[in-house]
Design brief:
Elements: E1 2-6, H1 10-19, E2 24-27, E3 47-53, H2 60-74, E4 107-109, E5 113-117, E6 129-133, H3 145-158, E7 166-170, H4 176-184, E8 188-192, H5 196-208, E9 215-218, E10 229-235, H6 238-243, H7 245-250, E11 252-264, H8 268-274, E12 281-288, E13 291-297
Parallel strand pairs: 5-6, 7-8, 7-10, 8-9, 10-11
Antiparallel strand pairs: 1-3, 2-3, 4-5, 11-13, 12-13
């Protein structure tokens, strides 16, 4: 699939494409002046051509329609984004299917958690908790800035003296955060997503990692979910974090931790302001590339 996207929306659009099962994304590089070296800190500007690679066994009209739906939704947050049907161009498997794998390798997060592609061989040591993820199934191997920050925060919470037992994952996507929580020792994980395809992928990843009995995946809206949780995860857009603030806070058990990500650095202060009034302590802020993650705690 090929589509043109304003520079400000590149990460958000790529994220949505991955959630739809994209196996890889390339973004055209800007033209360079032979005699002037590029400034690595210079922000991207203008429109960029995205090439997204999907397995050939999917229904093309359905996939194009679903991409357009995602673009229509993102157009509310990305100025200049045109929600048009993407152009489909067939490619030979050898152009991407195998070559893409060379970019993914096991990643250690914290002292115990290891996220690895399903085809990689990894020798676990001691108390290692190893998660298998296939990038062709959904949102990569957890190396994207937003997911990586959430995994790091999650791993730290499970290294404490009282590991959490109940976890809520809002906007679960591929389910990687829910699978990680269950693998690290959570007794019950509730993963919710409004996208039925994301729910299907999350269930597959839970089965792949042998934690399906402890990970419940649902398309039920957050407002209708009962219970309170030791950890609430929301790796979603900054605007959605702000909109859902009362419901996210309301799902926290006493002393629970709230992890917010999917937040571009320029929108970090907006989210901090939105969560500054309720009785939460924090935030602890971590950053990676252009992304920010906020960790709050509810009073005990």
């Amino acid at each position: 699939m090929q589509l043109r996207v304003p520079a400000v929306g590149l990460d958000l659009v790529c994220n949505e494409l991955m959630e739809l099962g994209c196996a890889g994304v390339t973004v055209e590089e800007r033209p360079l002046d032979t005699f002037v070296p590029p400034d690595p800190d210079e922000p991207a500007v203008g429109e960029h051509l995205i090439k997204a690679f999907f397995p050939a066994d999917q229904s093309l009209p359905t996939l194009q329609s679903r991409i357009k739906e995602r673009l229509t939704w993102l157009a509310n947050f990305v100025p200049g984004l045109a929600p048009e049907l993407p152009t489909a161009v067939p490619v030979q498997n050898e152009d991407w299917a195998e070559g893409w794998k060379q970019h993914f390798h096991p990643v250690r997060i914290g002292s115990r958690l290891v996220v690895k592609p399903s085809w990689e061989v990894f020798s676990a040591e001691g108390s290692d908790v190893v998660i298998d993820i296939d990038p062709g199934m959904a949102f990569g191997t957890g190396t994207h800035g937003t997911t990586l920050l959430c995994l790091q925060a999650l791993a730290r919470l499970f290294e404490g003296p009282a590991p959490p037992e109940k976890v809520l994952d809002v906007g679960t996507g591929s389910g990687i955060l829910s699978v990680a929580a269950a693998a690290l020792g959570a007794r019950r994980v509730l993963a919710c997503d409004i996208d039925p395809e994301a729910c299907r992928i999350a269930r597959e990843n839970a089965l792949l990692n042998g934690v399906a009995e402890r990970v419940e995946v649902t398309a039920t809206p957050l407002s209708e979910l009962p219970g309170d949780f030791d950890i609430v995860l929301a790796n979603i857009l900054a605007e959605e974090n702000i909109r859902l603030a009362p419901e996210l806070i309301g799902r926290l058990a006493p002393g629970g931790a709230l992890i917010l990500s999917g937040i571009l650095l320029e929108k970090e202060n907006l989210v901090v302001q939105a969560f500054s009034h309720p009785p939460l302590s924090g935030p602890e802020i971590t950053r990676h590339d252009e992304w920010s993650c906020l960790l709050y705690r509810a009073p005990a």
